[in-house]
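Exam revision sheet. Question 4 asks you to relate a sequence to its structure. Input first:
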Amino acid sequence: MSLSIDIVGPMITEGGQDSTKTTRMSSETKAKNIVFDVVGTLVSYEHFFVVIGQRLGSKLQPLNISARLLGFAWLESAEREYTYLSLSGKYLPFAQVFEAVFFRVLHFAGVPEPRSIATNEDVKFFMQEYKKCKVRPGAKECIDRLNEDGWTVWAFTSGDRERVIAYFENGNVKIKSKNLITCDEIGIGKPEIAAYTKLKERIGASADNALWYAAAHGWDVSAAGRAGFKSAYCTVLEKEPLEDIFGETDVVTATLPELADKVIPTTASYTRS
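Answer key, structure tokens:
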């Protein structure tokens, strides 16, 4: 959107006569878009790890298996299989893959007979509890600051729409449901570059507008950067940026509110609509 203003005022010429000077000033209102990853970034895994310990801890301890490490291995294994399936042309929803690989993960953890210490009912229970994960401290504050500064805040997730909307509602995070884009809807999983290309198309941002991507997963934010987004990485999840592996990002912070504080000034010259 362009705004033009005519400023008319007196001007003294060399002959001493008054003249009129018209100055044409223009300013542009540019869109400010920022996309957030959801689970791991705005939403913490902590509740999920706790319930694994509560449900299976007494069976895992004699085998020297940490509930937290098991939960992490389950997530990582599911993300790998989900991604590989997408890369090979067989996209499946993450939740379907996540549920399916649990007993395989127990096997890799060193459990001789995985189904002797857990049941299908346990897996169903964990899948339901995964939906109850909480918004990370500082997430609401981060999104509020960006909204107040005139940013359009988006979310891009491999999770299902219903679950993610519930996370936002329960945590009072102000991201509109129409601004939530899921990999299930576009049929391509992160971090395929094509997924971020589809994301950009959905946003519809032009080249001269601000377009940022924020995540606490190094693989996610670095892929978005290669797809043309400005990149903001928060170390709240992974702690170690590993820039020698993933490359440098435009912004790196330890907390989500700090991320907002660093991103907002990058558009200080923009005119708010």
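Marking note for examiners. The chain has twelve helices and eight strands.
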